[in-house]
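Data card: per-record layout.
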Amino acid sequence: MTRLQSVAGRSAEHGRPRRPGGSEVVTAHTSPACRVSGMQPDRQNEARAPFIRGTLSNYQQNQPSCRKNDGMTIYTSSRSGSTPVHFETPRLRVRPFVAADAGAFTAYRVHPDVERYQSWSNYTIEQGRALIDSMHDARPGVPGQWYQFALEEREGGALIGDLALKVDDAEPSMAELGFTLAPEYWGNGYGLEAVQGLLGYAFGTLHLRRLTAVTDALNYSAALLLDRVGMRREAYFHENIFFEGAWGSECAFAILDREWAAGCGVQLDPLMTRSGLVTGKKPRPQG
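The structure for this 287-residue chain is written out next.
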């Protein structure tokens, strides 16, 4: 299984992260693909992050730097060139990885706070390049395969993390998610915004029925984030995984498409409303 770090997630290094060995993933618990990662939440800024439900196409409209190709938005930036965009949120752009991402990708993966709940250590630029190369012809939603999304800041185009999704090969209406965020971007609500966007994409575009995530039981920040996006804590596995020389415990989370749809709408930050980036009427149900 995979370990979510403080900003939780799984990565496309395929599958859930295993304690010493296995595929990588993001920070949350992550499979080789990804685990939820470990950052300390900034309560003030996390509370200001918008709730994003359903499809995100409204954020992709009227973008002068974009054009459409085969149903996907094509965006041009200095880092990634002309690259298709899977979806956008008010502050983030989620796109495929490109070769130019290898340096920034490796830099945050090798950080001790990111490695803490992952299956890798001493991550190298060669590993980063190999993972990015493995994503070249991949596409999201293929049963049995992890897909890794690059997470880019819309303002400035910096690579700030990654998201991951693996559709179940036995039941293709279900998938596991993961995510990792570079430590310098922790505390700004980006993790919450990114995972909400991924849920909207998985349910609204890929038409999945059920999404799951697994995190280290000690990764309180990742668990809190998954709670806040509306995922249900379904299980606690006591000392079920051997990781970095010790037995550890994990928490399992899940959400159904109808549960996501029931909260469909946007809970907005007043500053974002004034910016004109997004409009919404129905807040996420509380309680």
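Known properties of this structure: The chain has one domain: 13-275. DSSP finds eight helices and 15 strands in the chain.

See the next section for split statistics.
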